[in-house]
């Protein structure tokens, strides 16, 4: 079972707020804060999807750290050239993996945690994606498999 998603969410939320220059403490814009929350959940779902992919496909001598897991997943799913996969924007990634990026795709505690996280939020989202919002190294540092 993948753990550490609470810490991943917090770090991702802070990272997005920093990239977008949105205040999360003090006098805040609740709509902008809801957008940050929703984007953080989206990115955490992506990270958890990739963590599951890593658990299934990486080996002791051939790891899939960071964005390599994303590239491998897209290569397996679509068989697109790696040059095209590596050139994809974050927006393109979310379109390509749309069918897998949902709260329903999560299991157990992660599904409950993120469902609760967005339950009372006004469903507003950013209209764009900034590639720098996703830091694949955060998941690498904060997620772990408790079965190992």
How would you sum up this structure in a few lines?
The protein has 148 residues and is mostly helical. The chain has helices at residues 5-20, 30-57, 67-78, 82-86, 90-96, 108-119, 136-142; strands spanning 2-3, 144-145. The N and C termini lie close together (9 Å).
Fold blueprint:
Elements: E1 2-3, H1 5-20, H2 30-57, H3 67-78, H4 82-86, H5 90-96, H6 108-119, H7 136-142, E2 144-145
Antiparallel strand pairs: 1-2
Could you characterize what this model shows?
InterPro entries: SfIV_phage_associated. With 148 residues, this protein is mainly α. The chain has one domain (2-145). The chain is built from seven helices and two strands. It has helices spanning 5-20, 30-57, 67-78, 82-86, 90-96, 108-119, 136-142, and strands at residues 2-3, 144-145. Strands 1-2 form a two-stranded antiparallel sheet. Helix 1 (5-20) packs across helix 2 (30-57). It is globular and about 50 Å long.
End-to-end separation: 9 Å
> Biggest sheet, in brief?
2 strands, antiparallel
**Percent range for β-strand residues:** under 5%
Low-confidence stretches: none
The secondary-structure element order is: EHHHHHHHE
